[in-house]
Amino acid sequence: DRAVYAVNLPQFLPLAVAQAMLETGWGRAVPGNNWFGIKGHGPAGSVNVPTREEFRPGVITRLRADFRQYVDPAQSVGDWLHFVTVGRYAPATQMGTAAAALWIWANGYATATGYVPALAAVSQRIAATTGLPQLAFQLTPAQHTLQQTLAALPAGAARRGTAHQLLASGQ
Prior knowledge:
Blueprint: H1 2-5, H2 9-24, E1 46-56, E2 59-68, H3 73-83, H4 97-106, H5 115-130, H6 141-151, H7 157-168
């Protein structure tokens, strides 16, 4: 789908690299070639693995879940790009990297309350070790405040609804 690949790739590159490293423990655990931790059934089926979810702030639940399985890493990258540029995540394509990370997280990509700050920290570590500063992003003070406000809410509809309200009102 050409529309998917018309996304501002320079904006999404830092997010993609940071998510891949965070979701796989720096490439140490990539079951089913799933570099982005996307749950569900993929083109090559699914793989059931242990995961940790934070449905309520500060409460970690350990469980098993089905994650998408891919033939190879390239298929995982293509699916991630499609996944984060359609449906509820689509507005992220019109945002800067940090805002896109906030939007995707608030709309259910991950449940961990510290997910976005962790992504930013990973992106900065990658930039420092590779000498590629364009791979780094950080939250502005306003984005940090928004992230903290949303992190106090349970994952799911409450977090999504509040994110939409705050962003619509210009906060």
